């Protein structure tokens, strides 16, 4: 099947998040005077910039952080947004990209590990909906897990979208880029685009092989307090 | 409390940035907030906690979206902005925030707490949160029923909350804490206000004549403070109010002038409290009422209604009977309107008289019916001209009987027709059976003939066999073939 070549040369699309809502995942990790503020949330880039300062002030007030955080937070958010906007004008190639997305996160007492395939071409995809259904199906009670999952998915999608822009730029520079064969972009995160031909071709079946079942099964663990403390201590050490 | 009508009068307050501090420190000045019954969906707390909601947020319900919300948070309802920002998402945010707060209503929730649990972009979540907080649907912790001992009368606070304002209460108006300009004492029971020179005198000063030169006693009007707190609007005042509203619309200053003796706020407050307030707002054309009454004066046969209608148009409560008044039949609409105007008893007697005269008219068109009942109907008709109630009901009864007979005849006719059709059906079937019988007979005969022929053939065969054995084989063969 010669589809990969044509897929590669599909018309480039303007950069945007490949989800139904064009939201930017923002991860903040600020430390001032020994106080650490770690947060991750999604931002709507079409909000006016005044919102950034408002949000920063609100957060500082709610969390009772020292006021020095306000400017830091605002700056951090704004730099993220600026990055996003710099990519926005450019093209990215939307080839046949089904990528595996891995979840490996801990929110309060819940540990989530999962892996699944996601179609990058589906611009109507909704990580929030996925997260909501995931929490419902796995009977997760902590309401903070849902947004964390959605955020993790979005972050990975964002990274891959950025890479596709970068690679599109490179390929344009190098005159017609790679031609023929199968285009398998490899991202730094290790997410390899799944070879559609092999998976869904006439000779193989859509049913997953048994040995891969464990990999694709979601694992949700509830940790006890000591385990949480231990993990947190480990993370601190890694951070330092 | 209908908050919609004055909301159209006052421009919607700016939705931007209600300072969260002010919302927290000044709970809106209303009468003690109504305790809302605990929501029916899962309440994690064991004993049913009572959730307090300020009276101006009474419209809130977990299951639906109110017009107020559409106004204040339009981004979710504007389909042009984003396909994903729809009312469902808004409802999800709003309900989860409210439920989160109600889970433990004694402590205030922060935006960051909530934001962590909701999936979506933080900007819109923040806006919904701000809206809910400003309206006191979350983080509403009244420490006592009335924070400040205000001398606001009820109507002032109601009209304020009725005007959809989330801002802190405006400064003191003139009709509270009346201080006599003569003796500088607080007016308590009654005071006299002179609008011309903007003076307020307590009763004592007025009696003593303690006012300026050039001001005469007739310039003052009596203002009862104690009465002001009661909503004792006389009929005349209400009538004046309604007239003024139809004339001046939203210009409350002129309305209050027209009413006289009531301030703007009183007028607004009273108007809101009128049961049909917002219905009336749509009823712009005050002149239409009298026009329709005049028209009906010509059309109606009933004399009684006229005088009543003429007097009734001046009735202060010009209520519109919406169910019937919207009927496409204009006469029906007018009749409904007038009957609402006139009151129930008048309408009743008018209707009876109308029925009586109608039956009379009916009887004159049915001259070919020579039933004994008709004559009695005539009698009934004659007798009912005076407008006696029992006769008119008799007349209507006769009317009904005649109709009944007609129905019976119709039914009989229908039955006979059905029987005819069925008979025809049976006849046709018989016919068909005869035909098929004939055909079968014919076939029988044919078969007989064939049998005979076969017999003949067999006979001839036998003869030929006996005569020539050689040719017999051939004929046998032939016979076999012909067989």
Mean of pLDDT of chain A: 74
Largest sheet, spatial ordering of strands of chain A: 5-6-7
Report the oligomer: heterodimer
Q: What's the gyration radius of chain B in Å?
A: 45 Å
Low-confidence stretches of chain A: 1-9, 177-191
Order of helices and strands of chain A: HEEEHHEEEHHHEH
* Shape estimate of chain A: globular
Number of strands of chain B: 5
Distance between the termini of chain B: 106 Å
Low-pLDDT residue spans of chain B:
1-47, 144-176, 284-318
Order of helices and strands of chain B: HHEEHHHHHEEHEHHHHHHHHHHHHH
Number of beta strands of chain A: 7
The largest sheet of chain B has its strands arranged as 4-3-5
How big is the Rg of chain A?
Answer: 20 Å
Structural class assignment of chain B: mainly alpha
Number of helices of chain B: 21
Outline the secondary-structure elements:
The complex is a heterodimer of chains A (240) and B (483).
Chain A: H1 3-8, E1 13-14, E2 24-32, E3 35-43, H2 50-63, H3 68-88, E4 91-92, E5 98-107, E6 110-119, H4 127-137, H5 145-173, H6 196-200, E7 219-222, H7 225-239
Antiparallel strand pairs in A: 1-4, 2-3, 5-6, 6-7
Chain B: H1 4-9, H2 20-25, E1 35-36, E2 51-52, H3 67-72, H4 87-103, H5 111-117, H6 122-134, H7 154-162, E3 190-194, E4 199-202, H8 203-208, E5 220-224, H9 225-228, H10 235-248, H11 252-259, H12 264-273, H13 277-282, H14 286-299, H15 303-312, H16 322-325, H17 330-342, H18 344-365, H19 372-383, H20 389-467, H21 469-482
Antiparallel strand pairs in B: 1-2, 3-4, 3-5
Main location (chain B): nucleus
InterPro entries (chain B): Homeodomain-like_sf, Myb_dom, SANT/Myb, SANT_dom, SMARCC_C, SWIRM, WH-like_DNA-bd_sf
Keywords (chain B): DNA-binding, Nucleus, Transcription, Transcription regulation
